Amino acid sequence: MAINDVEHCDQHCRHEDLIQIVNAQMPDEDELYDLAELFKVFGDSTRIRILFVLFEAEVCVCDIADTLNMTQSAISHQLKILKQSKLVKSRREGKSVFYSLADGHVRTIIAQGRDHIEE
């Protein structure tokens, strides 16, 4: 897409009152960075599939791998990323490790995304 294909102002003008409002509400750079990193986690369809499995129940790594027809190693790698991003939590029971959603926000984020793409 060429620059001419994007609508833009015909002349440069500055609306100080709006700029001040926006700047007053803008999160700091660290928070913006963290938010961007969180959304990167949602950029992988395997991780989204894992989250959909966890919407239904707390599930062990073996069952996630079987459900998604993937290796436990591949699933574990993705779960590590999801856990580092505080989207899932785990608990050990004997030789099994069970995963679940970290909190209700995860379901809300996915639901909002689905609503958006279905508009």
Poorly predicted ranges (pLDDT <50, ≥5 residues)?
none
**Rg to the nearest angstrom?**
20 Å
Count of alpha/pi helices: 6
Overall pLDDT, averaged?
93
**Strand residue percentage:** 5-15%
Q: Give the H and E element order.
A: HHHEHHEEH
**CATH topology name:** Arc Repressor Mutant, subunit A
What structural category do the secondary elements indicate? mainly alpha
Q: How many strand units?
A: 3
Query: What top-tier CATH class fits best?
Result: Mainly Alpha
Query: Residue share in helices?
Result: 55-70%
Order of strands in the sheet with most strands: 1-3-2
Give the name of the CATH architecture. Orthogonal Bundle
**Most strands sheet:** 3 strands, antiparallel
Q: What can you see in these coordinates?
A:
- It is a single chain.
- This protein is mainly alpha-helical.
- It has one domain (14-117): Arc Repressor Mutant, subunit A, CATH 1.10.10.
- Helices cover 59% and strands 12% of the residues.
- It has a 3-stranded antiparallel β-sheet.
- α4 crosses α5 (72-84).
Q: What is the fold's blueprint, element by element?
A:
Elements: H1 16-25, H2 29-41, H3 45-56, E1 59-60, H4 61-68, H5 72-84, E2 88-93, E3 96-101, H6 104-117
Antiparallel strand pairs: 1-3, 2-3
Helix pairs in contact: 4-5
Question: Which tags fit this structure?
Answer:
Arc Repressor Mutant, subunit A; 6 helices; single chain; 119 residues; three-stranded antiparallel sheet; mainly alpha
